[in-house]
Amino acid sequence: MTKFPLSDPTLFKKQALIWANSFPTFCFLDNNSDRENKYHSFECLLGVDAQMSIIASENSFQQLQNFRINHDGLMMGYFSYDLKNQLEDLSSDNPDRCHFPEMYFFIPRYQIKIHKEHVIIDRPYLEAVQILERIQSKELPNSKLSEIRLNPRVSKESYIESVNKIKEHIVEGDVYELNFCQEFYAEETEIDPILTFIELNSRSKSPFSVCFKNNFHYALSMSPERFLKKEGKKIISQPIKGTIRKSKNNKENEILKKRLREDTKEQAENVMIVDLVRNDLTRSAVTGSIQVEELFGIYSFETVNHMISTVVAKMSDDHNLIDVIKNAFPMGSMTGAPKIKAMELIDKYESGSRGLYSGAIGYITEEDDFDFNVVIRTLLYNSKEKYLSYTVGGAITYLSDPEKEYEECFVKASALGDWIRRTD
To answer: How many domains does the chain fold into?
Structure first.
């Protein structure tokens, strides 16, 4: 493990991404110097090239647990939303258009931690110097990000019709809340994934940003949300429910934040998901250890303000780290409540399989701690099939206005600028 000073960490991150992309597999995690979230463990972590890897099976979580028993050290990877079908009596006939494996983890050959003023390369000095020189020799591309138009999978009329049907289910008592999403996509499209991520990450500066590659599959995530973190015996979940645009005018933005904080509909959505998260954590926690550390916290990001709550618990000795993840997956903020019925209705009303969207990307440390984001605000790109996908959504409740829910989707997609094509 070798430490070097950095004069320009922002430039080094970009160069490191270009270097990493020369390998078949890498995972780049960046909190973009977020100082508001006290649970961040590092500024930026990059794992490159797979020494060993594991891909989804019919019993993926057990397979991953067995893999973990036999291999220690840092692991990086993801869980897709559709692993739900292995956890519950669920199935989906919706088409999967991105074709990502349902789970993939790897042990990186190279580990690099980038901090504000230095970088740590997990290699002996001479080898670390060579890696540093290779990274710093990379030149940034001169080309600009090409404008891409992503088309809606469903029309505005179809979206509103589905929301109204979901509200009927709420009236009938089938669910209390449901996370309903819509996809925007482009076919026969070629992008530069690294240049695209660099540009979008500079726009959004999200605290759970990810650039992930496994062969021809790329996930370019500007996620603001943590799914689950484990620090020793402490488990932390920070669901987001509640969104309003952000103003560049500080005075106006404070008014918007106050409006969000006092919005009874947004509070109702948030507290329902907090209750669902508490219930999920109960399955892995010491009895009586679950606490709501913060309720209805309002946090500002580059283009939006979010309502975030923090739920913590103490992990039971009867469970291992994979149990903790499995017992809370998929995250309640992306399903609804009750969770199983909500997932059934999601498959009924959405137009495609979510795949990695609504899943989680992150890492497991050699100490068996972990941290995973929620895969939202994420471009999924299959470079072999030239398919690009971006999905957005929100929580539907009895109080939801279908028109406003539709508009909120575009607020959440604002990090993509003019990429999203509207049909209305």
So the answer is: 1
How many other C-beta atoms lie within 10 A of the C-beta of residue 245? Answer: 16
Q: Is the pLDDT of residue 250 over 80?
A: yes
Domain that holds residue 28: 2-419
Q: Is the peptide bond before 338 cis (omega within 30 degrees of 0)?
A: yes
Distance (Å, rounded) from C-alpha 107 to C-alpha 363? 10
Which residue is it, tokens 């509207």? Answer: 422
Count the helix, strand and coil residues of the chain and give each as a percent rounded to the nearest 5: 35, 30, 35
What's residue 423's pLDDT? Answer: 67
Q: How far apart are CA 201 and CA 129, in angstroms?
A: 28
Burial class (CB in 10 A: 0-12, 13-18, 19+), 70: exposed
Q: Which residues lie across from 104 on neighbouring strands?
A: 55, 78
CATH of the domain at 415: 3.60.120.10
Whether the pLDDT of residue 268 is over 70: the answer is yes
Look at residue 272 and tell me if it is in a domain: yes
Whether residue 424 lies inside any domain: the answer is no
Residues 383-420 pLDDT 10s: 999 999 999 999 999 989 999 999 888 888 877 877 87
Find the distance separating the first CA and the last CA of the chain, reported in whole Å. 55
Tokens 């070798």: give the residue.
2
Amino acid type, 281:
L
CB 232 within 8 A of CB 391: no
If one counts every other C-beta atom within 10 angstroms of the C-beta of residue 324, the result is 22
Per-residue pLDDT reduced to its tens digit, 111-145: 999 998 999 999 999 999 999 999 999 999 887 77
Domain for residue 233, yes or no? yes
Closest CA to 312 of 323, 324, 320: 324
Tell me whether residue 298 is in a domain.
yes
Nearest CA-CA partner of 302 in 422, 207, 219: 207
Secondary structure (3-state) at 133 = helix
Q: Tell me the C-alpha to C-alpha distance, in Å, between residue 110 and each of 6, 37, 44, 253, 390.
A: 18, 27, 14, 42, 30
DSSP-derived secondary structure for 350-376? SSS--TTTTSEEEEE-TTS-EEEE---
Share of the chain above pLDDT 70, in %: 100
Residues 6+ apart with CB under 8 A from 2: 120, 121, 123, 124, 125, 128, 129
The whole-number pLDDT of residue 224 equals 94
In 3D space, the residue among 192, 285, 300 whose CA is nearest the CA of residue 240 turns out to be 300
